[in-house]
Write a structure and sequence with these properties.
Blueprint: H1 2-23, E1 27-32, E2 37-42, H2 45-62, H3 67-86, H4 94-104, H5 113-136, H6 142-153, H7 160-169, H8 176-183, H9 190-217
Antiparallel strand pairs: 1-2
Helix pairs in contact: 1-2, 1-9, 2-3, 2-5, 3-5, 5-6, 5-9
């Protein structure tokens, strides 16, 4: 029982590292024909969505403050999964979905998969910003770390209603020790947690760099909430 509990607690950071090891950076394949060579970026969709589900688990640890963002992440995962289910081979690559909507002129529509990918990326931006603040100072005020991370990554794209709701819920953020403890395995020191978070950060940075580059190439990177 104790071993099972430990494994369960390990999965939140450990599983995230495992998923990002697959996704550490999108691969570019050069396809050559008689007339031209084309660079095709391959960003596997299913491992990306699996990692985003782990983000939901992290957001749950922060508490009700993240309820709106958590729901948004969940809905966007479902939207992309529905597209994947329509053709698992073709849409195994996120870029193919973005390319399809760009050709159809539907990328900017409120329920587009392009918007879903964009908001999942912003949720990852928030997660990265928060983890970086924690690693820099594991004893810092958690409420301040969450607010600063939100202001940097999500607030510029949120409407005033969502921003106001976040401000109210911010008071419900757990203290630093509580948050670190729920991310830890039993008997795991804060230093060990810090090392795991640092490993996760090192994998998340190149992935987000690639995602932002892809979204910008399809001109959806500056879309705001509807």
């Amino acid at each position: 029982m104790e071993e099972t509990t430990k494994k369960k607690k390990m999965t939140e950071i450990g599983s995230a590292i495992e998923e990002l090891s697959v996704l550490s950076i999108a691969k570019t394949t050069i396809v050559t024909t008689e007339t031209e060579s084309t660079n095709i970026i391959n960003l596997p969709l299913k491992p990306l969505l699996s990692f985003c589900r782990l983000i939901i688990q992290v957001l749950d640890k922060i508490g009700p403050t993240m309820a709106v963002l958590r729901q948004d992440v969940d809905q966007n995962i479902q939207r992309l999964e529905k597209m994947w289910e329509s053709d698992p081979i073709l849409y195994s690559n996120l870029v193919e979905i973005l390319r399809k909507e760009a050709k159809e002129g539907s990328s900017r529509k409120p329920k587009s998969c392009s918007r879903a990918a964009l908001w999942l990326t912003r949720a990852m931006d928030f997660t990265l910003a928060l983890l970086q603040r924690l690693v820099k100072d594991m004893s810092q005020n958690m409420e301040q770390a969450v607010e600063e991370s939100y202001n940097l990554t999500i607030k510029p794209w949120h409407g005033w209603i969502s921003s106001a709701a976040f401000k109210v819920a911010l008071k419900l953020v757990p203290n630093n020790n509580t948050f670190i403890n729920v991310l830890s395995a039993k008997d795991e020191s804060h230093q060990m947690v810090e090392d795991d978070i640092s490993s996760l950060i090192s994998l998340l940075i190149p992935l987000l760099s690639q995602l932002h580059s892809i979204l910008e190439s399809y001109e959806v990177h500056k879309l705001k909430s509807t």
